[in-house]
Write a structure and sequence with these properties.
Largest sheet: 8 strands, mixed
CATH superfamily: Spore Coat Polysaccharide Biosynthesis Protein SpsA, Chain A
Order of helices and strands: EEEEEHEHEHEHEEEHHEH
CATH class: Alpha Beta
Radius of gyration: 17 Å
Length: 229
Amino acid sequence: MGCILKGGGGLYGRLSLGAVVLAAGQGSRMGYRPKCLLEIAGVSLIRRQLIALSGAGVDQLVVVLGHYADLIRPLIEDFPITVIDLSAESEFSQKYSVSAGIDALHGKFDAVMVAPSDMPLLGTADYTDLIGAYKKRPEGIQMVRPVLQQGLGNPVIFDYAITEESQDGIEPICRNWWNNHQEKCFAWPTKNDRFVVDIDTLEDLEILEKRLGRKLIYPEAVGMVHGSA
């Protein structure tokens, strides 16, 4: 007997799902601060992500750290997650971070989700909807990502088999694979703009604060970080 995926809209066999959350960036356009530690109502963006993903039924969560690992790790180590610290490595590209995160998954999964850590509005229901879209994907499709008015959103979810079969690697948020294998990709249409809201610049932050009607703030320790890391 299959199980009903919450929000998935039908009867399906259970999906084993691993998730990789990317939090290794330098945040140069945000004044060299870790974007994922911005807080909404006292809760950091990365903790919000981990809570939401856990609620969506992800089987294993891997968080990839790099710059600011010493600041981020203490705020997430109470979660039952796997933490990969790349701070001693010479490379911090998204491609490298994705590969390191996928390598840290224990065993094989049906699917993998890759999520940036600076998506401030995504909650459990949003992740559940995306997982449901993946489970109902058309035959032959291996990768699904949300698309709002032809603009690509995040996270992306794809067959674990891609990590074993792909010859061109998993590029930043899998963009190269998406571009090079259109016949195996499904642009899941959505009107939910939470899939396209992220924070890259101070202007993005100001727009989000106006939308929420509140300030996003850094913990005191983060407020002292500046300059090149």
